[in-house]
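Bumping with the actual sequence this time:
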Amino acid sequence: MTVYAQRRRRLLSLAKDNQVAVFTAPNLFWLTDFFGGGAAVVHPDKTVVITTPLEADRAGEVAKEAEIAVVKPNELMKEVAKRLGRGRVVADEAAPGVKPGALDPSPNLFLEARRAKDELEMRRLRKACAGTDRVFEALEEELKPGKTEWELAAVVMKAAVEQEMTPSSSDSSIGPVIIASGPHGAYGHSELSDRRLRAGDFVVADLFFRFEGYHSDETRTFAIGTVTAEMKKHYAIVREAEEEALDAIRDGATCGSVSDAAVGVLRKHGVDRYLNHSIGHGVGIDIHELPKITKGNDVKLAKRDVITDEPGVYLVGKYGIRIEDSVAVDAKPVLLTKYTKDLVTCG
């Protein structure tokens, strides 16, 4: 059975064999390898992709195990309705022009179907993460006093393209990446600016790119010149928290226990109040997927989940520190991102 057949079967099973309609590009891509505009109706033996003349030729070329139906833009929903029979229809979002109750929007059902990554997905994720490691190597060479965040972002984007990777569709930041220097590092999702790096800065670099549709997500914090003893101490604490969470990641562990492992280290050192986000999240076609690595989440990790491990501390007006890896879940954790987590001093 092909991976696409397995994905259809998994989705239809979670939908309890109700009809399934798709309206978002990520789910259409997961089902067919076509990332573009349109909709779809899912059958056990194929996915019917309904799209417009603008996208039809490309859809016909790249979509796997799909029938392509071409309609005018204003007839798309009419064609979806025609392809569906009577009875309940599970969809990934509410559809424009469809009366409430005609479709059952269940976005989390689709995210749950996408949790366990198959070998094709793992190959793409490994490639994305390895490419991002190479981008960090290029960035390290350019981290010098006087460089602006925008200039460094340009270095990062060029290096990513050379690795055949594309920008993420993250909804957490306007910028294509996060390069947050000095006090900007205290903003978890800082925007790029023309601030110039200075000796004594920490620089938080959060890089997220796609390879063939699948994301990397990796963060490192660099020192520019000599930083204070307090900064080095806080870096060591975050490193310890990240490693403690990593040790807790395994098949059958709860998401909450992984969060507790990291937060427990921060609490032990009295800096947990400086953490302002969750410890991690699933990653795949979307930068943020299921499962959520949050306090009290009793959902159990399972083999082939891919999640992030990203504790941090953020001192507003001073600096921030975050260390983040993408990790595949198995009997023990499998690191996908491998750029050094030692404190690298540049400039």
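The tokens above came from a reply further down the thread. The mean pLDDT is 95.
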